[in-house]
Every structure is written in structure tokens, then in C-alpha cells.
Amino acid sequence: MKKYSKFVAYFQTAKNDSFLSTFTTHSTTFAPQNNHVLHTTFSKTPLKNKGKQKLFSLHHHTIFFCAVALFFFPALTPATSAQISSPQIKKDKKQPKENIEWLWQYSPPPAEGRENELVRDERFRPFLAQYLTAPQTFWGNPKTGYKPLDETALDFLSVPDKVLADDNRYLSITGCVFRFCPSRGLLWVDLNGSHPLVVFAAIDWIKASKTPSEPGAEYTLWIFPNHPVDPEHIPAALTHSVARWTAQPPAGSKVIQQITAAILVDPDGTPHQIPPATIGANTFTRPPSEQKAQP
User: Fold this and answer.
1) Phi, psi of 117, deg, nearest 5
2) Residue 285: alpha-carbon gap to chain centroid
3) Is residue 260 packed enough to be buried (19+ CB in 10 Å), middle (13-18) or exposed (0-12)?
4) What does the alpha-carbon distance between residue 50 and residue 197 come to, in Å, rounded to a whole number?
5) How many CA atoms lie within 13 A of 171 on its CB side?
6) Minimal CA–CA distance to 284: which of 248, 256, 246, 243?
7) What is the pTM assigned to this prediction?
């Protein structure tokens, strides 16, 4: 025991002497531990920024994951990959139902409806501006410019005619241009569904033909739906409304207008020339004796 006690006392004295010497000579640094092993070589090249090392490792993990995904899912489409890599993209919310039921109050009774009141309704012009947005090139001139479609429709309905209802679902609103009733308009509305079909049709006089007061005058029928309509599958209710409308002469005349051309215009302005009978022009099913337009 005495032997070990001497050793302990000896090392304590030596340690204290070394500590005091180091503290006195190097006041701002600490000597490394005597048993610390220094490595002169590194297993990998050290990086100054440890963040880069983590990013490098993450990059390799990403490549490995993509390789595994391509191996097990070779038919993975780009769209599917985009959905996987971008989960934050949200689907569009379902659009609310468009409520235009207020139009129905202007239908019969009375027998021909109440178009005067309809045109003066404060909601009517915003309704036209919302649903009639296609470009048009028949009302106006190239030098001064063409009117927007909603303003054109308002011009063609400025002299009120009728508001008719069919099948408790469809409305047909008719009128003509102030001081020139040979230019007539039809606004047809399908009130069914969350996104109603609204169609504006206009009868435009072909100036190269005879005057409107003569039986041989010719007209073009322009049709503007707010949704694309297949020329081969035009709604039967629309053709019936056009047939009934074109079977009547303009106000103040007894001459039924001869529709010799019909142009169906897509919402983006693309025109499609169609046979007038396809849209029901100059064909009226009741009674059979009036199926053809009278000269």
C-alpha cells in the first residue's frame, strides 16, 4: 500500500506542475490530451461545409429511389410522376351553379311575355356580358371597329317583341334593331343544368341583294352559343325555336325573310358555315302548309 501511495502522490505532483506550466505559457489555448491519437489521412476527402455532405448523400438517395421506381413501374406516365413529386397541387374546386332563374318571371302570362320589363331589368345587361363573349364581325365596320357581342345582342333586342317558354325549360326572347326591324335578334336560353346554354341568333340583311321591302331580299343567320355546339347535333329545342321565329315576318312587314346562309360561331370566334335548315331557318313544323318560307 505504501508503494502505490507513493506512485499516486508522485503523479499528482507531476500533473499539477504540468498544468501550471501550460497555463502560464499559453494563456489562451489548451494543450491536447496526451492520449489523443491524430490521424494523418482521411477515409474520405473532408468538406469545409458539412451541409454539402448531407446534400450529396441526399442526392444519391434520390437517384437510387428514382432508379427503383423506374424498374418496378416502367409504365409510370409523366403526369403521374408530376402528381407524385408535387402533392401540393390542388384540384380545382367545383364551380357553383349559375342561377339565372330570374329570367323565368318574364315568360307568359301574358301570352307574349314581358320583354319590355326584361330589357329594363338591371340584371339583363350583366347577364348578356357574362354569357355572350365571342367576337363578331357582322355588326359594325372594319374602320370604326365591331361592337362586343353583348352590345350587339342588346341592339338586336332593343325593340321588344316576345318572350316565349317551351317545355317549362327553354326561353325564346325576340326583338329587332331600333328603326330597322329587318335586323332581328333571338336570345335562346336553356335553363336546365348548372351551366346553362345561352344562344344569340341574329338575322342580318345581305346588302348586295334586294332591299328588305322586296320579296327576293336575302339574309344571313348568325348563331353564337356560349358553349361549343356540334353542327351535327344542334339541340332540337333550339332548331324548333329558330324555325318558329323565322316563320314570322318582321314587324310592319308581311314578307318572310329568306335565310340563304347560316354561320355557327364557336365561343372562341371560329365560324362554321352550315345549311340554314340545319338550325331550323325557314322550316316551321306547325302547320305542315307553312314548312317552306313564302315568297
Assistant:
1) -70, -35
2) 38
3) middle
4) 63
5) 24
6) 243
7) 0.65
Tell me the per-residue pLDDT of 70-96, one tens digit each, with 9 for 90 and over: 555 554 444 433 333 333 444 445 556
How does strand 258-265 pair with strand 218-225? parallel
Q: What's the grid cell of residue 37?
A: 491519437
Output the DSSP codes for 262-294. Answer: EEEE-TTS-EEEE-GGGGTTT---SSGGGSS--
More confident residue, 89 or 266: 266
Strand bridging mode 180-190 / 271-274: unpaired
For residue 275, which amino acid is it? Answer: P
Tell me what the mean pLDDT of segment 168-176 comes to: 96
CA 30 to each of CA 13, 35, 39, 67, 216: distance values in angstroms, whole numbers, following the listed order: 19, 14, 19, 50, 114
Number of separate helices (H) and strands (E) present in the chain:
7, 9
Q: CA-CA distances (angstroms) from residue 58 to 45, 67, 81, 271?
A: 18, 14, 19, 56
Q: Is the peptide bond before 110 cis (omega within 30 degrees of 0)?
A: yes
